[in-house]
Write a structure and sequence with these properties.
alpha/beta, 9 helices, single chain, 2 domains, about 35% helix
Length: about 325
């Protein structure tokens, strides 16, 4: 029988944590305060946590920590890209851990969340009990080119035509850069339009299920496009310390790797390379899934991973 999400739960506590003079990040804890600590690292960049994200974990056995990254969702100020880099977010995860007086925890992240989880685990290995990653993304120039320039376009050319239509013909070799310039131009109308079209393009490769994008330039959700462009145009701020060159440090911990076979945004090649580097890890390539974490077969694999992690610990 396929596993489903655990039932909905309410937070035990929620609060805003000041991490510098600019940013306050939203944090909540759920489940059993005496259980195995786990931190949920959301994707995007810029997406924020949803209510169902609490439900990948057995609430009787896990102490579940969720947070919205800088500029995301319930964190403040919304959409702010100042002092907002991968290194800043890694330090925020540590700040949350220290604030909650947690010695070690499991780290669970999907898509961009897998990138940030891997960098955090490499930086603070002694604080990580185990690692669960989905839709593995190393944040490399190659992967960003696939997403925003040419690779994904081969699967959805009609959506790509709309996506590149905002960009002058002579600048279409650098579509993401042009979108980022629109978003940081100071013109809110341009910013909102670019953010909506960027999210609409990403949505086109998001799931195997029937899906219609709700991206709208007037809905006020420009912040995800802004943050995603900010990170991806800078190759996730990790070019000086590529993830793939520092995987040995993760050996010896339980690692579960889950990827959709038909994940167009984060194809399973990086998940496979991660597994090759960590041969004791468990790799699950889900045949009936794309990128979305809530597709039934993906839920089954992820909940199975969080349940199995408990037995490993």
């Amino acid at each position: 029988m396929m596993k489903k999400l655990y039932p909905s739960i309410e937070p035990n506590q929620s609060f805003h944590l000041s991490v510098n003079d600019t940013h306050e990040i939203y944090v909540e804890t759920c489940g059993n305060p005496d259980g195995v600590p786990v931190v949920f690292v959301h994707g995007g960049p810029g997406a924020g946590c949803g209510l169902d994200d609490r439900c990948f974990f057995n609430p009787e056995k896990y102490h579940i920590v969720l947070f919205d990254q800088r500029g995301c969702n319930r964190s403040r100020p919304l959409g702010n890209i100042e002092e907002n880099t991968t290194q800043d977010l890694v330090q925020d995860i540590e700040t949350i851990r220290q604030h909650l007086a947690i010695q070690q925890w499991v780290v669970f992240g999907g898509s961009w969340g897998s990138t940030l989880s891997l960098v955090y685990a490499q930086t603070h290995r002694e604080r990580v009990l185990g690692l669960i990653v989905r839709g593995v993304f190393f944040g490399t120039p190659e992967e960003n080119k696939w997403l925003w320039q040419e690779g994904l376009s081969r699967f959805n050319p009609e959506a790509y035509e709309r996506y590149q239509s905002l960009v002058p013909v002579d600048q279409r070799d650098h579509i993401l850069k042009y979108y980022y310039q629109m978003m940081t131009s100071g013109d809110d109308t341009k910013r909102n339009l670019a953010a909506a079209e960027m999210m609409r393009w990403e949505d086109a490769g998001f799931t195997m299920q029937d899906y219609e994008s709700t991206a709208n330039p007037d809905d006020g959700n420009w912040h995800q496009g802004m943050l995603e462009a900010h990170y991806c145009v800078h190759n996730c701020f990790i070019e000086d310390r590529p993830i793939v060159e520092h995987l040995d440090v993760l050996k010896g911990m339980p690692v579960y790797i889950v990827n959709g076979r038909y994940d167009l945004l984060c194809p399973p090649i990086k998940a496979y390379k991660l597994h090759q580097a960590l041969p004791e890890s468990k790799l699950t390539v889900v045949d009936r899934a794309g990128h979305a974490s809530k597709e039934p077969a993906m839920v089954d694999a992820l909940v199975s991973a969080t349940d199995e992690m408990l037995s490993q610990l």
